[in-house]
Protein backbone atom coordinates (compact mmCIF):
# COMPACT_ATOMS: atom_id res chain seq x y z
CA UNK A 1 0.00 0.00 0.00
CA UNK A 2 1.37 3.43 -0.97
CA UNK A 3 1.94 5.94 1.82
CA UNK A 4 0.05 9.22 1.63
CA UNK A 5 1.56 12.71 1.32
CA UNK A 6 -0.58 15.83 1.77
CA UNK A 7 0.75 18.89 -0.11
CA UNK A 8 -0.44 22.20 1.40
CA UNK A 9 0.38 25.07 -0.98
CA UNK A 10 -1.85 27.80 -2.41
CA UNK A 11 0.06 27.89 -5.71
CA UNK A 12 -1.62 25.55 -8.23
CA UNK A 13 1.53 25.16 -10.34
CA UNK A 14 3.65 24.22 -7.33
CA UNK A 15 1.08 21.65 -6.22
CA UNK A 16 0.93 20.16 -9.71
CA UNK A 17 4.73 19.95 -9.91
CA UNK A 18 4.96 18.24 -6.55
CA UNK A 19 2.20 15.83 -7.48
CA UNK A 20 3.95 14.86 -10.71
CA UNK A 21 7.18 14.36 -8.82
CA UNK A 22 5.68 12.19 -6.08
CA UNK A 23 2.78 10.34 -7.64
CA UNK A 24 4.72 7.21 -8.66
CA UNK A 25 5.78 6.44 -5.10
CA UNK A 26 3.08 8.05 -2.98
CA UNK A 27 -0.61 8.70 -2.93
CA UNK A 28 -0.75 12.53 -3.13
CA UNK A 29 -3.51 14.68 -1.60
CA UNK A 30 -3.65 18.43 -2.22
CA UNK A 31 -4.86 21.41 -0.20
CA UNK A 32 -4.78 25.06 -1.37
CA UNK A 33 -5.51 26.54 2.05
CA UNK A 34 -5.64 25.62 5.73
CA UNK A 35 -9.34 24.66 5.78
CA UNK A 36 -8.74 22.23 2.92
CA UNK A 37 -5.70 20.89 4.81
CA UNK A 38 -7.82 20.31 7.95
CA UNK A 39 -10.46 18.51 5.89
CA UNK A 40 -7.85 16.29 4.20
CA UNK A 41 -6.26 15.43 7.54
CA UNK A 42 -9.50 14.52 9.22
CA UNK A 43 -10.71 12.42 6.29
CA UNK A 44 -7.58 10.42 5.51
CA UNK A 45 -4.71 8.62 7.02
CA UNK A 46 -1.86 11.03 6.11
CA UNK A 47 1.71 9.80 6.52
CA UNK A 48 3.55 13.06 5.81
CA UNK A 49 2.58 16.72 5.24
CA UNK A 50 4.48 19.02 2.85
CA UNK A 51 3.66 22.52 4.09
CA UNK A 52 4.34 25.81 2.33
CA UNK A 53 4.91 28.50 4.96
CA UNK A 54 3.53 31.28 2.75
CA UNK A 55 -0.22 30.68 2.83
CA UNK A 56 -3.48 32.61 2.60
CA UNK A 57 -4.94 34.74 4.09
CA UNK A 58 -1.48 36.45 4.31
CA UNK A 59 0.77 34.78 1.74
CA UNK A 60 3.59 37.21 2.59
CA UNK A 61 3.59 36.29 6.25
CA UNK A 62 5.34 32.96 7.01
CA UNK A 63 3.84 33.14 10.49
CA UNK A 64 0.62 31.64 9.05
CA UNK A 65 2.48 28.49 8.03
CA UNK A 66 4.50 28.48 11.27
CA UNK A 67 1.28 28.66 13.30
CA UNK A 68 -0.15 25.74 11.32
CA UNK A 69 3.05 23.76 11.81
CA UNK A 70 2.71 24.23 15.58
CA UNK A 71 -0.92 23.14 15.46
CA UNK A 72 0.01 20.00 13.47
CA UNK A 73 2.77 19.08 15.89
CA UNK A 74 0.41 19.38 18.81
CA UNK A 75 -2.70 17.77 17.27
CA UNK A 76 -1.11 15.11 15.05
CA UNK A 77 2.30 14.48 16.63
CA UNK A 78 2.63 11.19 14.73
CA UNK A 79 2.58 12.90 11.31
CA UNK A 80 5.93 14.32 10.12
CA UNK A 81 5.95 17.73 8.38
CA UNK A 82 8.39 18.92 5.68
CA UNK A 83 8.23 22.71 5.11
CA UNK A 84 8.71 24.67 1.90
CA UNK A 85 10.50 27.99 2.34
CA UNK A 86 11.22 30.79 -0.08
CA UNK A 87 14.60 31.17 -1.75
CA UNK A 88 17.36 31.97 0.74
CA UNK A 89 15.25 31.61 3.86
CA UNK A 90 17.50 29.34 5.83
CA UNK A 91 16.87 31.10 9.13
CA UNK A 92 13.14 30.51 8.66
CA UNK A 93 13.73 26.85 7.85
CA UNK A 94 15.81 26.40 10.99
CA UNK A 95 13.08 28.06 13.05
CA UNK A 96 10.56 25.62 11.55
CA UNK A 97 12.80 22.70 12.48
CA UNK A 98 12.92 23.99 16.05
CA UNK A 99 9.13 23.86 16.05
CA UNK A 100 9.26 20.21 15.00
CA UNK A 101 9.46 20.19 11.18
CA UNK A 102 11.24 17.04 10.07
CA UNK A 103 13.04 18.78 7.16
CA UNK A 104 12.66 21.54 4.55
CA UNK A 105 13.35 22.43 0.92
CA UNK A 106 13.35 25.77 -0.89
CA UNK A 107 11.68 27.37 -3.87
CA UNK A 108 12.22 27.23 -6.81
CA UNK A 109 12.08 23.42 -6.59
CA UNK A 110 15.03 21.27 -7.44
CA UNK A 111 13.23 17.97 -8.26
CA UNK A 112 16.04 15.75 -6.91
CA UNK A 113 16.31 17.72 -3.68
CA UNK A 114 12.53 17.65 -3.16
CA UNK A 115 12.21 13.90 -3.80
CA UNK A 116 15.23 13.05 -1.65
CA UNK A 117 14.03 15.22 1.23
CA UNK A 118 10.57 13.65 1.22
CA UNK A 119 11.83 10.06 0.84
CA UNK A 120 14.37 10.60 3.62
CA UNK A 121 11.83 12.19 5.98
CA UNK A 122 9.29 9.46 5.36
CA UNK A 123 11.87 6.73 5.93
CA UNK A 124 13.30 8.39 9.08
CA UNK A 125 9.82 8.71 10.51
CA UNK A 126 8.88 5.09 9.77
CA UNK A 127 12.18 3.87 11.08
CA UNK A 128 11.54 5.75 14.34
CA UNK A 129 8.03 4.26 14.53
CA UNK A 130 9.40 0.76 13.91
CA UNK A 131 12.03 1.22 16.61
CA UNK A 132 9.42 2.49 19.04
CA UNK A 133 7.27 -0.52 18.25
CA UNK A 134 10.18 -2.94 18.64
CA UNK A 135 11.07 -1.36 21.94
CA UNK A 136 7.48 -1.71 23.14
CA UNK A 137 7.33 -5.28 21.92
CA UNK A 138 10.54 -6.09 23.76
CA UNK A 139 9.25 -4.56 26.94
CA UNK A 140 5.91 -6.34 26.88
CA UNK A 141 7.21 -9.63 25.53
CA UNK A 142 8.96 -11.32 28.40
CA UNK A 143 9.65 -14.37 26.33
CA UNK A 144 9.56 -14.20 22.57
CA UNK A 145 9.77 -17.88 21.76
CA UNK A 146 6.86 -20.28 21.79
CA UNK A 147 8.63 -23.12 23.55
CA UNK A 148 7.68 -26.78 23.63
CA UNK A 149 8.54 -29.91 21.70
CA UNK A 150 5.36 -31.86 22.50
CA UNK A 151 3.11 -32.93 19.63
CA UNK A 152 0.60 -30.26 20.75
CA UNK A 153 3.17 -27.44 20.52
CA UNK A 154 4.54 -28.65 17.21
CA UNK A 155 1.02 -28.75 15.82
CA UNK A 156 0.43 -25.22 17.14
CA UNK A 157 3.57 -23.91 15.42
CA UNK A 158 2.54 -25.62 12.18
CA UNK A 159 -0.90 -23.94 12.30
CA UNK A 160 0.73 -20.55 12.95
CA UNK A 161 3.02 -21.00 9.95
CA UNK A 162 0.05 -21.95 7.77
CA UNK A 163 -2.30 -19.19 8.88
CA UNK A 164 0.17 -16.30 9.28
CA UNK A 165 0.32 -15.36 5.60
CA UNK A 166 -3.45 -15.26 5.06
CA UNK A 167 -5.31 -11.99 5.55
CA UNK A 168 -8.11 -13.72 7.50
CA UNK A 169 -9.30 -12.75 10.94
CA UNK A 170 -8.21 -15.27 13.58
CA UNK A 171 -9.84 -16.27 16.84
CA UNK A 172 -7.43 -17.73 19.42
CA UNK A 173 -9.05 -19.78 22.17
CA UNK A 174 -7.53 -21.11 25.34
CA UNK A 175 -7.50 -20.92 29.11
CA UNK A 176 -5.86 -18.05 30.96
CA UNK A 177 -2.07 -17.84 30.69
CA UNK A 178 -1.73 -20.49 27.98
CA UNK A 179 0.09 -18.16 25.57
CA UNK A 180 -2.71 -16.71 23.42
CA UNK A 181 -1.05 -13.31 23.12
CA UNK A 182 2.27 -14.96 22.33
CA UNK A 183 0.56 -16.91 19.52
CA UNK A 184 -0.94 -13.65 18.19
CA UNK A 185 2.53 -12.06 18.15
CA UNK A 186 3.96 -15.07 16.33
CA UNK A 187 1.20 -14.82 13.72
CA UNK A 188 2.08 -11.16 13.21
CA UNK A 189 5.83 -11.77 13.06
CA UNK A 190 5.42 -14.50 10.45
CA UNK A 191 3.03 -12.41 8.33
CA UNK A 192 3.79 -9.90 5.56
CA UNK A 193 2.66 -7.24 8.06
CA UNK A 194 5.63 -7.82 10.37
CA UNK A 195 7.28 -4.49 9.42
CA UNK A 196 4.23 -2.65 10.75
CA UNK A 197 2.92 -2.30 14.28
CA UNK A 198 1.40 -5.05 16.44
CA UNK A 199 -0.95 -3.52 18.98
CA UNK A 200 -2.50 -5.60 21.79
CA UNK A 201 -5.55 -4.40 23.69
CA UNK A 202 -7.27 -6.02 26.64
CA UNK A 203 -10.97 -5.42 25.96
CA UNK A 204 -12.08 -6.53 29.42
CA UNK A 205 -9.95 -3.99 31.25
CA UNK A 206 -11.49 -0.80 29.87
CA UNK A 207 -14.69 1.20 30.17
CA UNK A 208 -16.96 1.40 27.12
CA UNK A 209 -16.14 5.03 26.32
CA UNK A 210 -12.40 4.62 26.77
CA UNK A 211 -12.35 1.50 24.61
CA UNK A 212 -14.30 3.20 21.84
CA UNK A 213 -12.12 6.31 21.81
CA UNK A 214 -8.90 4.28 21.97
CA UNK A 215 -9.98 1.99 19.13
CA UNK A 216 -11.27 4.60 16.72
CA UNK A 217 -9.59 7.82 17.93
CA UNK A 218 -11.31 11.17 18.27
CA UNK A 219 -11.37 14.65 16.82
CA UNK A 220 -10.51 17.79 18.72
CA UNK A 221 -13.60 18.81 20.73
CA UNK A 222 -15.23 15.36 20.52
CA UNK A 223 -15.73 15.44 24.32
CA UNK A 224 -15.56 18.20 26.88
CA UNK A 225 -11.95 19.21 27.50
CA UNK A 226 -10.46 17.42 24.47
CA UNK A 227 -8.10 19.88 22.80
CA UNK A 228 -6.28 17.54 20.41
CA UNK A 229 -7.08 15.04 17.73
CA UNK A 230 -6.02 11.54 18.73
CA UNK A 231 -5.45 8.65 16.38
CA UNK A 232 -7.04 5.40 17.49
CA UNK A 233 -5.48 1.94 17.45
CA UNK A 234 -7.07 1.15 14.10
CA UNK A 235 -5.06 4.00 12.56
CA UNK A 236 -1.91 3.51 14.63
CA UNK A 237 -1.77 -0.17 13.70
CA UNK A 238 -2.05 0.83 9.99
CA UNK A 239 -0.61 -1.93 7.81
CA UNK A 240 -0.13 -4.12 10.90
CA UNK A 241 -2.10 -6.26 13.33
CA UNK A 242 -4.58 -5.39 16.06
CA UNK A 243 -4.94 -8.02 18.80
CA UNK A 244 -8.13 -7.83 20.84
CA UNK A 245 -7.53 -9.87 23.98
CA UNK A 246 -10.65 -11.01 25.87
CA UNK A 247 -12.94 -10.09 22.99
CA UNK A 248 -15.96 -11.42 24.93
CA UNK A 249 -15.61 -8.34 27.14
CA UNK A 250 -16.46 -5.93 24.30
CA UNK A 251 -19.57 -3.89 25.11
CA UNK A 252 -22.41 -4.31 22.58
CA UNK A 253 -22.06 -0.73 21.26
CA UNK A 254 -18.37 -1.30 20.46
CA UNK A 255 -19.21 -4.70 18.91
CA UNK A 256 -21.51 -2.90 16.45
CA UNK A 257 -18.75 -0.46 15.45
CA UNK A 258 -16.18 -3.22 15.13
CA UNK A 259 -18.52 -5.17 12.89
CA UNK A 260 -18.89 -2.12 10.64
CA UNK A 261 -15.10 -1.83 10.29
CA UNK A 262 -14.81 -5.53 9.47
CA UNK A 263 -17.58 -5.35 6.88
CA UNK A 264 -16.69 -2.09 5.16
CA UNK A 265 -13.01 -1.63 6.07
CA UNK A 266 -13.95 1.91 7.13
CA UNK A 267 -14.60 3.89 10.30
CA UNK A 268 -14.79 7.45 11.64
CA UNK A 269 -13.02 9.05 14.57
CA UNK A 270 -15.37 9.99 17.44
CA UNK A 271 -16.76 13.47 16.84
CA UNK A 272 -15.76 13.36 13.15
CA UNK A 273 -17.72 12.66 9.95
CA UNK A 274 -14.80 11.78 7.74
CA UNK A 275 -14.58 8.17 6.63
CA UNK A 276 -11.17 6.61 7.18
CA UNK A 277 -10.21 3.33 5.62
CA UNK A 278 -8.53 0.67 7.71
CA UNK A 279 -5.76 -1.67 6.64
CA UNK A 280 -5.42 -3.78 9.76
CA UNK A 281 -5.52 -7.51 10.37
CA UNK A 282 -7.64 -8.40 13.36
CA UNK A 283 -6.74 -11.22 15.76
CA UNK A 284 -9.01 -11.87 18.74
CA UNK A 285 -8.68 -14.11 21.74
CA UNK A 286 -11.08 -15.50 24.26
CA UNK A 287 -10.97 -17.78 27.26
CA UNK A 288 -14.76 -17.70 27.51
CA UNK A 289 -17.31 -19.76 25.66
CA UNK A 290 -18.26 -17.26 22.93
CA UNK A 291 -21.05 -19.52 21.63
CA UNK A 292 -22.70 -19.34 25.03
CA UNK A 293 -22.31 -15.54 24.98
CA UNK A 294 -24.01 -15.49 21.57
CA UNK A 295 -26.83 -17.71 22.88
CA UNK A 296 -27.26 -15.42 25.88
CA UNK A 297 -27.43 -12.34 23.62
CA UNK A 298 -24.36 -10.60 25.05
CA UNK A 299 -22.23 -11.20 21.94
CA UNK A 300 -23.48 -10.42 18.40
CA UNK A 301 -23.74 -13.51 16.24
CA UNK A 302 -22.79 -11.58 13.06
CA UNK A 303 -19.58 -10.39 14.74
CA UNK A 304 -18.91 -13.89 16.04
CA UNK A 305 -18.98 -15.27 12.47
CA UNK A 306 -16.71 -12.46 11.26
CA UNK A 307 -14.03 -12.96 13.89
CA UNK A 308 -13.75 -16.71 13.85
CA UNK A 309 -12.91 -17.20 10.19
CA UNK A 310 -9.87 -19.16 11.34
CA UNK A 311 -9.70 -20.64 14.82
CA UNK A 312 -6.62 -21.64 16.81
CA UNK A 313 -6.84 -23.54 20.08
CA UNK A 314 -3.94 -23.12 22.53
CA UNK A 315 -3.76 -26.16 24.83
CA UNK A 316 -3.58 -25.83 28.61
CA UNK A 317 -0.22 -26.72 30.17
CA UNK A 318 -1.60 -29.91 31.76
CA UNK A 319 -2.25 -31.22 28.23
CA UNK A 320 1.40 -30.81 27.20
CA UNK A 321 2.97 -31.35 30.61
CA UNK A 322 5.89 -33.14 28.89
CA UNK A 323 7.06 -29.62 27.91
CA UNK A 324 7.29 -28.55 31.54
CA UNK A 325 11.03 -29.29 32.08
CA UNK A 326 11.96 -27.30 28.98
CA UNK A 327 9.67 -24.40 29.88
CA UNK A 328 10.70 -24.43 33.54
CA UNK A 329 14.44 -24.33 32.75
CA UNK A 330 14.02 -21.55 30.16
CA UNK A 331 11.95 -19.49 32.58
CA UNK A 332 14.39 -20.22 35.41
CA UNK A 333 17.34 -18.87 33.39
CA UNK A 334 15.44 -15.71 32.54
CA UNK A 335 14.17 -15.07 36.07
CA UNK A 336 17.57 -15.84 37.62
CA UNK A 337 19.26 -13.36 35.27
CA UNK A 338 16.61 -10.80 36.21
CA UNK A 339 17.36 -11.27 39.92
CA UNK A 340 21.13 -11.38 39.39
CA UNK A 341 21.40 -15.01 40.62
CA UNK A 342 23.21 -17.94 39.08
CA UNK A 343 20.78 -20.84 39.04
CA UNK A 344 21.10 -22.89 35.90
CA UNK A 345 18.63 -25.74 36.20
CA UNK A 346 16.13 -27.34 38.51
CA UNK A 347 17.00 -30.57 40.32
CA UNK A 348 15.03 -33.65 39.36
CA UNK A 349 12.82 -33.76 42.53
CA UNK A 350 11.76 -30.14 41.97
CA UNK A 351 10.89 -30.85 38.33
CA UNK A 352 8.87 -33.86 39.45
CA UNK A 353 7.02 -31.70 41.94
CA UNK A 354 6.28 -29.16 39.18
CA UNK A 355 5.08 -31.89 36.82
CA UNK A 356 2.63 -33.28 39.38
CA UNK A 357 0.82 -29.95 39.79
CA UNK A 358 -2.28 -29.19 37.69
CA UNK A 359 -1.35 -25.60 36.64
CA UNK A 360 -4.79 -23.97 36.43
CA UNK A 361 -3.03 -20.66 35.62
CA UNK A 362 -0.90 -22.38 32.93
CA UNK A 363 2.46 -20.96 31.76
CA UNK A 364 1.85 -17.59 33.43
CA UNK A 365 1.37 -19.35 36.78
CA UNK A 366 4.53 -21.36 36.12
CA UNK A 367 6.41 -18.09 35.50
CA UNK A 368 5.09 -16.60 38.74
CA UNK A 369 5.91 -19.69 40.81
CA UNK A 370 9.44 -19.83 39.39
CA UNK A 371 10.03 -16.14 39.95
CA UNK A 372 8.91 -16.49 43.57
CA UNK A 373 11.18 -19.47 44.14
CA UNK A 374 14.16 -17.67 42.55
CA UNK A 375 13.64 -14.60 44.71
CA UNK A 376 13.47 -16.79 47.84
CA UNK A 377 16.32 -19.15 46.88
CA UNK A 378 19.25 -19.15 49.28
CA UNK A 379 22.77 -20.04 48.03
CA UNK A 380 21.62 -20.05 44.41
CA UNK A 381 19.74 -23.33 44.87
CA UNK A 382 16.03 -24.02 44.47
CA UNK A 383 15.39 -27.02 46.72
CA UNK A 384 11.62 -27.23 46.55
CA UNK A 385 8.64 -25.11 45.66
CA UNK A 386 6.84 -24.45 48.94
CA UNK A 387 3.62 -23.08 47.47
CA UNK A 388 2.77 -26.29 45.56
CA UNK A 389 1.73 -28.64 48.31
CA UNK A 390 1.93 -32.30 47.38
CA UNK A 391 0.68 -34.10 44.31
CA UNK A 392 -2.48 -32.71 42.75
CA UNK A 393 -4.48 -34.43 40.08
CA UNK A 394 -5.22 -32.42 36.95
CA UNK A 395 -8.27 -30.23 37.57
CA UNK A 396 -10.12 -31.94 34.73
CA UNK A 397 -10.12 -35.15 36.81
CA UNK A 398 -11.65 -33.64 39.93
CA UNK A 399 -15.33 -32.89 40.27
CA UNK A 400 -16.12 -29.27 41.17
CA UNK A 401 -17.62 -30.29 44.52
CA UNK A 402 -14.36 -31.88 45.66
CA UNK A 403 -12.37 -28.86 44.57
CA UNK A 404 -14.79 -26.59 46.38
CA UNK A 405 -14.72 -28.71 49.55
CA UNK A 406 -10.91 -28.65 49.44
CA UNK A 407 -11.02 -24.87 49.65
CA UNK A 408 -13.23 -24.77 52.77
CA UNK A 409 -11.30 -23.25 55.67
CA UNK A 410 -12.72 -25.57 58.31
CA UNK A 411 -12.52 -29.23 57.43
CA UNK A 412 -15.08 -29.99 60.19
CA UNK A 413 -17.80 -28.11 58.37
CA UNK A 414 -20.94 -30.19 57.94
CA UNK A 415 -21.28 -31.72 54.51
CA UNK A 416 -24.99 -30.97 54.37
CA UNK A 417 -24.41 -27.24 54.67
CA UNK A 418 -21.55 -27.37 52.21
CA UNK A 419 -23.75 -29.13 49.65
CA UNK A 420 -26.58 -26.63 50.19
CA UNK A 421 -24.23 -23.67 49.78
CA UNK A 422 -22.83 -25.18 46.63
CA UNK A 423 -26.30 -25.80 45.20
CA UNK A 424 -27.37 -22.22 45.96
CA UNK A 425 -24.25 -20.87 44.26
CA UNK A 426 -24.97 -22.97 41.19
CA UNK A 427 -28.56 -21.73 40.99
CA UNK A 428 -27.42 -18.12 41.35
CA UNK A 429 -24.77 -18.55 38.70
CA UNK A 430 -27.23 -20.21 36.30
CA UNK A 431 -29.66 -17.29 36.73
CA UNK A 432 -26.87 -14.75 36.29
CA UNK A 433 -25.71 -16.34 33.06
CA UNK A 434 -29.23 -16.66 31.66
CA UNK A 435 -30.70 -13.18 32.18
CA UNK A 436 -32.55 -14.39 35.30
CA UNK A 437 -34.95 -16.46 33.22
CA UNK A 438 -35.78 -19.54 35.29
CA UNK A 439 -36.64 -21.90 32.44
CA UNK A 440 -33.44 -21.04 30.56
CA UNK A 441 -31.29 -21.25 33.71
CA UNK A 442 -32.84 -24.65 34.49
CA UNK A 443 -32.02 -25.96 31.02
CA UNK A 444 -28.48 -24.58 31.37
CA UNK A 445 -28.19 -26.70 34.53
CA UNK A 446 -29.38 -29.72 32.56
CA UNK A 447 -32.77 -30.09 34.29
CA UNK A 448 -34.54 -31.07 31.04
CA UNK A 449 -38.37 -31.10 30.77
CA UNK A 450 -39.46 -29.52 34.02
CA UNK A 451 -36.61 -27.05 34.17
CA UNK A 452 -38.76 -24.10 35.18
CA UNK A 453 -40.58 -25.98 38.02
CA UNK A 454 -37.32 -27.26 39.42
CA UNK A 455 -35.81 -23.78 39.33
CA UNK A 456 -38.92 -22.35 41.03
CA UNK A 457 -38.54 -24.94 43.80
CA UNK A 458 -34.82 -24.15 44.24
CA UNK A 459 -35.41 -20.38 44.25
CA UNK A 460 -38.05 -20.82 46.99
CA UNK A 461 -35.75 -23.14 48.93
CA UNK A 462 -32.88 -20.66 48.94
CA UNK A 463 -34.97 -17.49 49.09
CA UNK A 464 -33.64 -16.26 45.74
CA UNK A 465 -35.84 -13.50 44.32
CA UNK A 466 -36.58 -13.64 40.60
CA UNK A 467 -39.50 -11.94 38.78
CA UNK A 468 -42.44 -14.39 38.72
CA UNK A 469 -43.03 -14.42 34.98
CA UNK A 470 -39.43 -15.37 34.23
N1 LIG B 1 4.77 -22.08 24.92
C1 LIG B 1 5.30 -21.04 25.58
N2 LIG B 1 6.62 -20.83 25.56
C2 LIG B 1 7.17 -19.80 26.23
N3 LIG B 1 6.49 -18.91 26.96
C3 LIG B 1 5.16 -19.06 27.00
C4 LIG B 1 4.49 -20.12 26.33
N4 LIG B 1 3.17 -20.00 26.56
C5 LIG B 1 3.02 -18.91 27.33
N5 LIG B 1 4.20 -18.34 27.61
C6 LIG B 1 4.45 -17.17 28.46
O1 LIG B 1 3.43 -17.16 29.45
C7 LIG B 1 2.99 -15.83 29.74
C8 LIG B 1 1.50 -15.75 29.50
O2 LIG B 1 1.26 -15.85 28.10
P1 LIG B 1 0.16 -14.95 27.35
O3 LIG B 1 0.06 -13.58 27.97
O4 LIG B 1 0.44 -15.03 25.89
O5 LIG B 1 -1.13 -15.80 27.76
P2 LIG B 1 -2.67 -15.50 27.45
O6 LIG B 1 -3.27 -16.82 27.12
O7 LIG B 1 -2.78 -14.41 26.43
O8 LIG B 1 -3.19 -15.01 28.88
P3 LIG B 1 -4.60 -14.29 29.24
O9 LIG B 1 -5.70 -15.26 28.90
O10 LIG B 1 -4.51 -14.08 30.72
O11 LIG B 1 -4.65 -13.02 28.46
C9 LIG B 1 3.79 -14.91 28.84
O12 LIG B 1 4.89 -14.38 29.55
C10 LIG B 1 4.25 -15.82 27.71
O13 LIG B 1 5.45 -15.36 27.14
UniProtKB/TrEMBL annotation:
Keywords: ATP-binding, DNA-binding, Nucleotide-binding, Phosphoprotein, Transcription, Transcription regulation. The modification 4-aspartylphosphate is found at residue 52. Pfam families: AAA_lid_14, Response_reg, Sigma54_activat. Residues 4-122 form the Response regulatory domain. It comes from the Bacteria. Transmembrane segments: none annotated. One of its GO terms (biological process) is phosphorelay signal transduction system. InterPro entries: AAA+_ATPase, AAA_lid_NorR, CheY-like_superfamily, P-loop_NTPase, Sig_transdc_resp-reg_receiver, Sigma_54_int, Sigma_54_int_dom_ATP-bd_1, Sigma_54_int_dom_CS. GO terms for molecular function: ATP binding; DNA binding. Residues 146-375 form the Sigma-54 factor interaction domain. CDD domains: AAA (cd00009). PANTHER family: PTS-DEPENDENT DIHYDROXYACETONE KINASE OPERON REGULATORY PROTEIN-RELATED (PTHR32071:SF117), TRANSCRIPTIONAL REGULATORY PROTEIN (PTHR32071). This is Transcriptional regulatory protein zraR. It comes from Mariprofundus ferrooxydans PV-1.
